[in-house]
Structure prediction request, 217 residues.
Amino acid sequence: MTPTITAFESSPDRGRGLARDMAVRWAFEEVGQPYDVRLVSFAEMKQPAHLALQPFGQIPTYEEGGFALFESGAIVLHIAEQHAGLLPDDADSRARAIAWMFAAKSTVEPVIVENEVAKFLEGDKSWSEERQPLINGRIRDRLRQLSVRLGGAEWLDGQFSAGDLLMVNVLRRPSALALLGEFPNLAGYVARGEARPAFKRAFDAQLAVFTDHAPAG
Ligand SMILES: N[C@@H](CCC(=O)N[C@@H](CS)C(=O)NCC(=O)O)C(=O)O
Prediction:
């Protein structure tokens, strides 16, 4: 059965690969699994039918038959466990790849998202500008640590994995991208991820939601 995911009907970035269905689309493309997409409006995301799938009223969700899942990281892990190509066979390497998935979502992403929250929700506060260097400092610290660990390697731990997929996806967020010039090896890492044919197919599919349905004029 073809899995169905949910994605924004109307996205703040107009489908530039930042909404979190991007990682799920990319994972599907890496493993060659076709998928359907159900577009949801912001209002629908807060309705009981969607909340039953995603308790926080967000996208993406994943449905296959009677099975449903939420959280992009968990969905990518589910896809990676069901198909070859995103997790190594060797148990230790597999555990380390999963650790990088968690690192992307729970250690690197939060400091980046903090900046987005600060800009969009707290930008008008008197203390907002004063706080900015602290937020950027925390992002820079994480990027520096990641840069040291990556060193001259192509991927974080041997072959490309779901850990790299989520990490590249997180580093593509504007607040990280803005600092990547200071970390050439991370900039190269992101470029390698974006150059993967599966990334391009996923990116184009998300963008097509907005270009194909763009209002005339
Ligand atoms: N940790 C969640 C975050 C999901 C999330 O923040 N989704 C955003 C789109 S990228 C969303 O639905 N935002 C609308 C809202 O929170 O109301 C995941 O990775 O799936």
